[in-house]
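Q: How would the structure tokens look for this protein?
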Amino acid sequence: MDAAHVLAALALGYLLGSIPFGLLLTRAAGLGDIRAIGSGNIGATNVLRTGNKGLAAATLILDALKGYAAVLIAASFGPLAAIAAAVGAVLGHMFPVWLRFKGGKGVATTLGVMWGLSWPVGAVTCVAWLVIAAVSRYSSLAALFSIVIGAVVAWLTLDWRVALAITLLMPLVWARHHENIARLLNGTESKIGQRSTA
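A: Here is the predicted structure in token form.
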């Protein structure tokens, strides 16, 4: 595979990943700009703060599906293209050009690309998220540690190139959660279902 195919896959992933479903859905539902609500994030957790669970679930699913779709489409050009599309999709969600590069935190999209690259790794990561979230009631804590668990499983089960790509997504997700990490450490992080302005 040549560099042109890899760059094309990266661009494809970025364009798909940059679709701001949370913003589009809340506007279509007449709830205004999600960026003016709660944390200002365009992801499912913040959409949930509108009180509309259906929209939050739809945002979560669509944000995951865009990452999954990017990987599947690019995979027809080879494994390196799939990896490039995976990274591009997460970067697109986090830094969408349409929103002046101010996007979401990338958890759902990262889960989506994990499913695309390896469904067992994606499944393990999702289960880890559910278990940690159920025990702690912190969405951010579940996101942070489920991604780590997914990366570890990837190294144990996948080709090193795929495992490396998933591992490189981990610090991106953690960096986007820096405010959540600070609130977790000082005990002010909001729990799942709790309305918050942060």
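The radius of gyration is 16 Å.

Residues 21 and 69 are 14 Å apart (CA to CA).

Upvote if useful.
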